[in-house]
Design brief:
29% helix; two-stranded antiparallel ribbon; elongated; single chain; Chorismate lyase; 2 domains; alpha+beta; Arc Repressor Mutant, subunit A
């Protein structure tokens, strides 16, 4: 469903002028403008962008410059161009198999995109009776905790909040999780025996929305994941995905 144009010409010019100090070429500034409007949620899936003529008239740029910016964003999967109709927001969602425990970095790279991560927290803490009870630890025994934001290109696609049993991953706090994911390290330290997923639809907290760069009204998928090694619970993770950027999928056989 197309909801119409999101900005008038004057607003389009203002958004472009906000990037006037950038040393990037004009077509890249146009791309940056469009990407920011999409990732912020101001331009949503199915919305019609201003026409090329409107871009040209509002920004004072050549048609070749505008065409290159929109063409490259279409090739990257962020826009869908329909001949004779217009250009529309088309955010290609990442996906994961519901029945499998997968590495987010592998998922992103499999789609031909650039993966990177930002570590928000990595420390030892008292997680409380509920978490320690699941691990089979004393009530106030310290556990390891990490919070990591995972990106596909420059778009946040997952906020990972993970507790780890230090008995099975004693060197967890020494790892650089911008170079490899917690999943990768844990797969080596305590090879996966089995996993459990519980999925729910939620709204993000104000903090989570700010970290992910989404509106607080954006529906999200939260995956509660627990993983075991040799029948011992090793990791408890909460994985939050913006609903507009991610999906879960699976197959089943009735035979």
């Amino acid at each position: 469903m197309v909801s119409g144009l999101r900005v008038e010409g004057a607003d389009l010019a203002r958004l472009y002028e906000e990037r006037a100090s950038s040393s990037a070429p004009a077509y890249q500034r146009v791309k940056d403008l469009v990407v920011e409007e999409i990732t912020s949620g101001r331009w949503r899936e199915g919305d019609a962008l201003p026409s090329e003529n409107q871009f040209v008239e509002s920004l004072g740029l050549s048609r070749m410059t505008i065409n290159r910016a929109l063409r490259e964003l279409s090739a990257q999967g962020m826009l869908r161009r329909v001949m004779g109709v217009g250009t529309f927001v088309h955010v290609e969602k990442g996906s994961a198999a519901l029945a499998e425990v997968q590495n987010i970095a592998d998922e992103v790279q499999h789609r031909g995109r650039h993966y990177h991560a930002r570590v928000l927290l990595l420390r030892e803490e008292d997680a409380g009776l509920e978490i320690n009870g699941q691990f089979g630890l004393d009530a106030h025994a310290p556990v390891f905790r990490s919070r990591v934001v995972h990106f596909e290109d420059d778009v946040a696609v997952q906020l990972e909040d993970r507790y780890v049993n230090p008995v099975f991953a004693p060197h967890y706090l020494e790892q650089d999780f911008t170079r490899r994911t917690p999943f990768t390290y844990l797969s080596e330290a305590a090879p996966l025996g089995r996993g459990e997923h519980i999925v729910e639809a939620v709204l993000p907290s104000a903090e989570e929305a700010e970290i992910l760069g989404i509106a607080e009204s954006e529906p999200c998928l939260r995956i509660h994941r627990r993983t075991w090694s040799q029948e011992a619970l090793v990791s408890i993770a909460r994985l939050l995905h913006p609903g507009s950027r991610y999906r879960l999928e699976g197959t089943f056989d009735t035979h």
